[in-house]
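Input:
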Amino acid sequence: MTRRATNILGLVALALVGTTIGMGLALPRTVEQHEYSRMIAIHPPLAWASYVSFGVTALASALYLWPRTRSRFWDLVAGASAEISAVFTALTLVTGSIWGRPTWGVWWVWDARLTLTALMLALLLGYLALRRVPGDIGARGKRSAVVALASALVIPIDHFAVDWWTTLHQDSSIERAKDTLGGPFVAAMLVGFVAFTVLYAWLLVLRFRVEQLEDRYEVEGLDVALAARRAEALPLREPEVVA
Amino acid sequence: MNTRVVVALAAIAAALIILFVNLGQATQFFRTADQAVAQRAKLGHRRFRIEGTVVDGSVHTAGQQVAFVIESKGARVDVLHTGDPPQLFKPGIPVVLEGRFEGQHFASDRILVKHTESYKVQHPDRVSTTVAG
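Output:
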């Protein structure tokens, strides 16, 4: 992706996020939640983005483990995406907590949905820590990929938790959108989904480049350092050769 | 190496399945009012969470206490709550209460407002649609 294309993607992402916030603030008061329903423009889309980014990590990890598609590229995509997912998951927890305080009356409860989302953040941070454990690049890639795939099982469990178990958290917003959500709420939420997905794509491109540079530094760093030393040593050796 | 990866994957999957099955039993965040009434003898004085919809016109405040009735699938439970109810507490909405059965009523000390997925817009030309009990 060229620099220009990346910048355009970034501008589109920021414009969409701005639109989402504007649409969210313009939402009307509701009977049950008064002003607080407006969080629907931000909170479900953030949760969605955290699932998508973790899902991409799992997919890239599977492609890395599959011998025919194994390449450094997929390992780096997995790492970059997981880091963004951790940010989105943390933001999901924060916005959910802010929404819960006025509407439920509490910042936090240990129901299935909230507990599993907290577990998801812990798994992501664990995965990112594991990626930093030094070792042979190939072995490290495989080990991280296996952990990413196993951890990603939390995504469907977390998503269906509200249907499978009794939770304080409300049921899935999208599936019921038609019956219970008015037009402006659906519109704001859907624009939010698109906005945070595009934002994710932009962040992934940027984070992947940094990951690539870090990787190059790790692989070529020693060669570069050696070459630099050799270059320094040359003038001293020359007189010896002449003599 | 490959067999080890498979074994590791299988072990993690097994652990998650066990966790998942047990979660299924443990993640009953609350009992609905009808379930609680049915299990009343078994529950005794144990502390648990109960869920039901606040019955219209049943809310009466007296000093530090609020009395109201919750309903779920036809079963009604009298509630005596000690403390301030949350901001959005009102008749007609589902709530989750923490406490225990004491004699004829449920003694609650914590109210969580459980929202439905309803986002009905408030009538714009009315001052308020809220009816205090």
